[in-house]
Every structure is written in structure tokens, then in C-alpha cells.
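In practice, a research group might receive sequence data for several interacting partners and want a quick structural hypothesis before committing to experiments. The following worked case mirrors that situation: the sequences arrive first, and a predicted assembly follows.
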Amino acid sequence: MTERLKQLLHERSDAVDFAMPDIDALTRAGERRIRRRGAALVAGGLAAAAVTATVLVPQLRGGADPVQVVDVPATDAVSWAKGDVIHVGNQTVDVGHEIWAYSRTTRGYVVADRDGTVWSVTDSGIKNVGTVSAKHPRIVADTDGTLAGWVDPSGDSPAFVVLDQATGDVVREDGETSPDMGELADEENPAYIYAIDGRTAYWRDARGAVAVDVDSGEVRVVNARARNGFDIIAAEDDLVAFSRQRGTQIGQGPDDVVAMLREVYGSMGAFSPDARFYTADADEPQVYDVSTGTRVELDLDRGFATGYEWLDSETLVVLAAAEAENTSEAELLTCSVTTGECTPVAADLGTFDDMVESVALPVGERLGG
Amino acid sequence: MAGRDRSDFAEFVTARSPALHRAAYLMVGDVSLAQDLVQEALTKTYVAWPRLRDKRNAEAYTRKAITTTAISWFRRKGWSHEISSDAPPDAGAPGHADKVAQSAWLWEALQELPVRQRAAIVLRYYEDLTEAQTADAMGCAVGTVKSQVSAGLSKLRERLGDDPDLLPLTDLVVNR
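A structural hypothesis for the assembly, expressed as C-alpha cells:
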């Protein structure tokens, strides 16, 4: 029954002759674009060289080898950090710097220390890769990709920085920010990095919320009216979770509605790696099937519980406690969204008050704000 | 230059540009616009060439660039096709419209669809891509492809009537 439609499409397309593209013109245009990109978005080798120079600084001061070789376990496992150490199941990674906030990619961890120095932790070593706000660190990453990003406030104007942990390449962009821009999500006119999805970084600059192809430098304005750091919550597989007055809207753009999660107002959230499910932060697990917008129930009887990251397309990591009190003992669980079953995986983290003081989870920010 | 081999790229352009042009034309319905679209997509492909470690992925990359660029252009520039508002022939009356007229109406109705719906239909029914491949080309989720194809076919059916010989029934669309 599709034959008539198919036949029409073939008839129409076959009826037109197209001239062969001018290959020299194409390559000239491509080379111009590569040069232009290099001027606007510092890429690859140049930035990597700068990073290398930064890493060498401790050595010149008489410190140890600046690139400490570590064995990084697979990152798609439950992890938490305390002091200088990331705990990944029964394994540990000693970063050698106090872990203030961290995120993970498929290649390793990206850590902010108390001073705002950003460290890339991979099998290739632990390398200084930049600077983030020491007071309010925020590192976003694609957990099923290799990119991580943050805002560097150390220059005249804030700069967006994206690290590829697969190659060590760093791109930096500060052409659309100004010195008066804020850094917190709820500040007026912040320079704010929302999320990273594959090779695309979502951030807010003078143009509003933009999606930047990290490789080509191509910029797409997602929402010119984006006011602050809450307009976009998460992104995965080109789906974006937008904060709306009625709740959380999931779609490819502000005008596209794949799912409208009414009354879901979590300021943080995470898509499963296949973007089939979405979890929003709340006092109880709020997990939704993106294709239907329906809530997925988990078999979890706790006074407080919130999902915050996905290990795979069906396994959600949940932070929970028996009571919704800061003095309650916190625990981490993994929950299957297909069976609803939850399994405790870590229960020696202390109380919520203890955690805020000394523990970091791979959400890229300090716990408790 | 290492990584961006001009002869490989030229070979790719020579071999694949006719097919890429045809698909672009179906998406935008205009010859010169299709040429501009393919030129832009091939320029992006040239820039990305060193990243395309397996050059067999080049066509998929270019197809994706054509699709997403078309969607972006239509959105950004607010383009739409000026379509006659005349009523279509009564598709419900067998034999009333011959196939030539029917094709003309189907083509016009197709061009009247929102660009994402049109792109989804072209990728599914012309390129014969699976839903997953279509999702990849459009840079969206498989569920979005299903909804875009379904919505597009529904609109075509509204305009052209419920002739199963002309349009696939939504529930009979093969999901691969």
C-alpha cells in the first residue's frame, strides 16, 4: 500500500537533473569554515598544548609527576567521592586532589577540586584541564559520551569550555559572553552550561539557550528567550527537557512536545542513555516513560528518595533515606525501571548533613547546592 | 593533508551527489534550494571528514546534515510552500481522478507538510530507511519518527482522502 507514495517520490526525483557540485568550491568553503572555526572556537591542538603547559606547572615547582597514571574502572557503575578518592563499587580511584564536585563520561571522571581546578581522570592520567567556579562548581557531561563541559570564570568574560576525554582536546568559547553575566542558575542573565548530549553542548549566553556542535562550531539558537539556568534541564539523543510553567516539557525544541510532564518541576533531571526514560529530582522517585509521558513506579518504601543518574537504559541510581530528615542515614540504591525492583548498593555514607560536608556524587555539583 | 583526503572526498561527492540531490529535492521541493542544501551538507561533511573514520559512514553523515539543515533552514527562515488552496479531487469517488492528477495533488500535499514530517516520510518511503536509521538521520528519537510519520500521513489523508492504494495506513506501516 505504500507503493503509490514510493512511486511518486521516485518519479518526481528521477525527473530532475542536477549538476555535479564544484568540488574545488566545496573544499575551499570547507577550508574557510575550518579557519573561521579556529578563530572563534579554540579547538584541538592549540588548546591541548595550553593544557599541557598548565599540567607542567606543578613539576616546575618541584612537585611530583603532573600526570599521575591511574587505573580507572568502568564508569557506568555506582560511584561516590570522599576526600581525594572516588569509590566505584569495591574499587577506588585516588585523584590526589580533594574532590569537590565531579561528573563522569565513558572514558573517566572530570573533577573540580576545592580551589576550582578541573582535573580529567582517565586511564591516560590525571591532568589539569581548566578552571571552574570554586564556590559553585558545575561540570556537565554526557555519561554515554566522552565530552564534559563547564564555565571558566577566570577571564574577563566567562568562557564555555568543553573537554573530550577520548582525545584530550579542549574547546573554549567566550565570544558571546560579557563580564557582567552571572554564574548561578537563578541569577539574572547567567553564562550557564546546561547539558552535553553527544557532540552537542547546550549553554546560555548572550544569544539565549544555544546548542553548539563542538566539532563544527555550528550554533543553533534553541530558545532566544531563555532567561536563566533553569530553562533547559537535561538533553539526550537530541531530546531536551525544558522547564515550563506547567511542568517539564520534553522535545527537540521549545515548540516541540514529545512529552509534557505536568507538575514536574525538578530543577535537575536526567534522561536514560537511550532517552526512553527521564528522572526528575523530587522527594520521591519521579521517573517517566518519555514516549508516553506516564510515570514509572518503583518498589521503594523510603521517606525520601530521588533518582539522579542512569547506569544503563533501565537502571536508575537513587539517593534515599528512611526519613526526610537531614539527620537520616543516606543510602544509594539501583532501581530497574522495567521491574521496579530496587537494590541497596551503598549504605555507609553517613547522614545527609554528613554527605553535604564530605561526599560528592557524580552530578557535577556540590550536594545541597 | 592528513585526515582530510581531497581525492577520497572528491570520489565520494562524485559517486553519491546525484542520490543526495534527489533526496534533498524531495525534502524541500525546489531544485535550487536542494542544490544549496546539498552544497551546505557536503561542506559540513568535508569539515567532518577526518572524524569519519569509516568513510562508509560519510553518506549517512551527509544525509543527516541534509535533513537537519533543511529542518533548521525552514524553521529559522520561516519558509513554507505556497500551495494552492483549491480543493483536491474527490479521492473517495473511484475513477474520478486519474493517476497523473492524483500524483500532482499528492506532491503538493507532501510539500505542504511541516518540514520534519516531510523529511520523515521521505527518509522512510523514499530512502527506505528503518525507523532507527530515520531517527539517526533526523537527529531525534525513534518515537519522534513514528509520531512525525503518523502525523504526516494523517495530514495527507485528510487532504487526499482515505485511499489505501495511495497512502499507507498508519497502522499498517511496517516498523522495523
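Before designing any experiment, note the following. DSSP finds seven helices and no strands in chain B. Confidence is low (pLDDT under 50) at residues 81-94, 171-176 of chain B.
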